[in-house]
Amino acid sequence: MAAAATTTTNxxxxxxxxxxxxxxxxxxxxxxxxxFLQAVEEMALSIEPLFNDxxxxxxxxxxxxxxxxxxxxxxxxxxxxxxxxxxxxNRGWRVEFSSALGPYKGGLRFHPTVDDGILKFLGFEQIFKxxxxxxxxxxxxxxxxxxxxxxxxxxxxxxxxxxxTELCRYIDASTDVPAGDIGVGGREIGYMYGTYKRLSNxxxxxxxxxxxxxxxxxxxxxxxxxxxxVYMAQHAIxxxxxxSLEGTRCAxxxxxxxxxxxxxxxxxxGAKVVCMSDSNGVxxxxxxxxxxxxxxxxxxxxxxxxxxxxxxxxxxxxYIPNHSPWxxxxxxxxxxxxxxxQNEIDGKAATMLIEKGVMGVFEGANLPVTTEGQExxxxxxxxxxxxxxxxxxxxxxxxxxxxSQNASRTYWKREKxxxxxxxxxxxxxxxxxDNAGEDGTLEEGCNRAGFLKVAQALKELGWVY
Length: 465
Prior knowledge:
This protein is α/β, with parallel strands linked by helices and 465 residues long. 45% of the residues lie in helices and 15% in strands. A seven-stranded mixed beta sheet has the order 9-8-7-6-10-11-12. Helix 7 crosses helix 8, helix 9 crosses helix 10 (257-268) and helix 10 (257-268) packs antiparallel against helix 11 (291-303). The chain is globular. The relative contact order is 0.12.
């Protein structure tokens, strides 16, 4: 045990308590929120040169510390009734993290692992992701520890109605605009928006995004995060590696919204999607997923609400239980698209990817690589690594466009939205390159670009001085 402990004291690692001692007060306050601290320290590591700036370093430290505390945290209980008439009570939260650039903006997650620490991590990341989009959006996040798995349609509807009955007190098109996330898709957004309309008598409001186009939603919102992740990868691969995605072997983790549409776009661009996964195992397609395979997965996940293990007789792939794409030593891949959840690629998995010759990791999920995994990737600067703040910003970007569409009482065609999404992802990539400079990485450029815009806003607002 003692020998293992000594491996965590790399002086250049953000997990070393001696690194960034100005964060020690934060560490002492929130030792029970390790993923939040991980997100803060990962960000600090990328923008360390700013802290050492002889002119503005002190200001940047103060601005960073200011951004580590949410402006407001709201918690409430959510009582609901199951189909047998029994009452249950779950916890609900909304973390309104930063309004420096605009109204709080970020998704709602329904999952049993949700707590205030997980939502603080997600809200903190959201500040900088939203900054990169170029839209006037602040950062926030919310959700509940409610587990939608195994629940009936009626149970989910009643829970969403109860959740919105409380949340509606705090949201407004110019204050806080939630959207979907894990466990919250178009169905759940619809139920919550329906409750909001009944309670508020306000219709056409951009108070939730991810709505159906029937009542104010925007085309391409379900696809935007996954498509945007692939558009970002396409820019990086063409620019840095001087090649295309066509013919490459791409591993996608997860089978939710982001994974589904990242896989679809990869197939359209001629890549071979060699796997998708869920929490129970991996569906492997050695010769690449077909369009028919993809359609079967969509039916299973969005209509049948089934696990991937039930698909083995309906698709060309082979199901391997109790594994993730990152624990299969014999799976040959060129690019990794982690689209499942936080901390799915640890140090061992990242090392295995590097040894396989993986050329790029593009985060469709939020913080899917652990601190140790990030250190392994940073040690191999020839491997492209684009964090979720940039890679999966297409989702919130199109949500911001939905807000604009609602405010102007207009309706945009799918082709126009796709063109705006492509332009947005190209702009984010250019921001990363510009802020990385000659010697920096795309990861460093991403985090610096996102932070500098918010820090300047804090200064001009007179909030940090």
